[in-house]
Every structure is written in C-alpha cells, then in structure tokens.
Design goal:
This protein is α+β, with helices and mostly antiparallel strands. The chain is built from twelve helices and 13 strands. Helix 9 crosses helix 10 (280-289).
Length: 351
Amino acid sequence: MDKNVKLLSIATAVPEHIIQQSDAAETAARLFSDRFQDFRHLASVFTNAGIRTRHATRPLDWFAEPHGWEDRMSAYVDMARRLFAEAAAKALADADLAAEDVDCIVTVSSTGLATPSLDAQLARQMGFRADIERVPVFGLGCAAGVSGLAVAARLVRNRPGATVLFVAIELCTLAFRLDELTRANIIATALFADGAAACVLRNGGNDGLIEIEATGEHLFPDTLGIMGWKVDDGGFGVVLAQSLPPFVEAELGGALDAILDRNGLSRDDIGRFICHPGGTRVLAALETVLCLPTGTLDVEREVLAEYGNMSSPTVLFVLERALRQGLPERSAMLAMGPGFSASCMTLRRVA
C-alpha cells in the first residue's frame, strides 16, 4: 500500500448510560435463573469476563422489558446518529479539518439498520459537501474495525490530497433478548457493549499519527456457524460458538503468517500487536498464537475492563491508547469477525 496513507486522528464516543458488571449479573439472574436451567452454570461468565463497566444505548431497566424490531431500530438510529456525530466531530477537530474537507465517508456497523444511511441523515448537520462519496458497510462484525479501516485506506491510496473519514459504530446491547434461552445469549449479555470510533485518513503530507502500510484478510472455509446473527421477528439473535478460542489457537497463526507473507513481512517484523479484545479467553488464545507472555496484551485488557466488547470500534479504542503510549517502528492491528474471518493491518511510525 502507498506509504503516504496517513492516519491523521482518532476519536471515540460512548453512550451516557453506564452499566456496572455486578448490576448486569444481578439483572440477568433475575431475568433468566427461573426460566433457564443452565443459567447457574453460566453465571460465572459475568465475573470471569474481565469487565467492570460497559456503556449502553438505554438504561439497564430498558432491557428488562420485551422489545421488537421497531423499538430496537428506533433506539439504534437515535444513538448511532449521536455517536457518529460526536466521534466524527472530535476526529475532524483533532485533524484540524472541517466536515466540508471530507471527500469520502466509510461507515461500518453490523448491529442496526438505517436507510437512508447514517452519513446521509447527518450530512446537513455535520456540513458534508453534496459531492461526498458514501460507503456504508454492513456485516463485517468485530473484524470491521480493521477491515473497514482498510477499505478507507484503499479508497484514499490513489487519491493524492484526498481526505477520508472512517466511522465504526456498534450498539451491541440492542441485541439482548429476553426470549433467547441459550448459552450464546447469556454470554453476549455478559460481554457486549456500545460505542463508536472515528478516524481521519489522508494521502500525502508529512504529518499524521501513523502510516498505514499493508492490509490483508483471511476467510476460513466452512466456519459460518462460529459467529454472526440470526434474524427473526424479535430482532437480531447472537450466534457465538463455544469453539471460538480453541479455533483461534489452532487456525489463526497460519492465516496471519499468510497475510504478512503476501505483503513481504513476517511476525519478526512486528514490534507490537494491537488486537480486538473479544473476551478474556480470546485474549489468552491470541497471546498463545502470537507467542506472547501472558498479560502482554495489557491495553486490550484495560479497554475490555472499562468498555466491554463493543465489536468493531473496540480495536480502535485500543489503538488510541497504544498511540498515546508510543508505538514501535512497525505494529500490526488484528481483529476477527463473522465469516469466520481475520483482518490484519500493519502500521509504520511516522518519521
């Protein structure tokens, strides 16, 4: 990839409603323990998830009532618009740019539907130009923080001076289901949260936080059942296989090596990995695959503890903190998502 693709800024935003993990555990026990026999065996996930607090689109008591598509999508559009505007405005301000300077917007989200797309709904409020290019992307899930940023980088690569705004928004809590008496739903209730992140990319110039070097993806065959949504009249229902951490340990290493090799790199060239913290078991599996001592992915665990798993924006929360700490000459972002797929992006320190 053209070495002139620079990340100029990164900003994050979360809803105002904060859920303590202890309160989430108590509420889940009240709602499920009498109706779901296996809940007692699953209740420990709330304490073992490595999460203290999460942010949610609606207060905790909202989730104790049944909601259908209309309620869920109304809540999605309301909060997604607010988080998009907040994160995008912060990112543009940090890059010393205005909305009218943006040539293209890439928006990723897999937890709600909006037509017209969020960027169109906010165009007048934000001040985007009438000739702006809009690229809304649905369905990449947790991997979209990396794969969506890669799409944005490819769009800016051959456009000297062009500015691309990338926004990742997920409102995972809106998929919470009272009627889903399943292991996957209980685990999702303990893990997932809401948030957004925005990045500004530009081709050219000597400024920037980091240089986007290379990108790649790997789609594993016959893995559709590992992660995703099932859709019915009640809304989205989570698909989450118990085999995910062992699958990561067994299969991710080869996929990562193939992505790096296609770009003339190897793991020895990577000074630091910046990973999507899907959960404590997934982080442990990643450390095993990457041959890292236990606890190396400390920023990932900090973000997980403070915000939970927000799906696609989460790895960008990690990147934001890692940038503040300082990155080595070359680092790599890594995320996995529905498909089942892995996405990787290498970053070079700006001289």
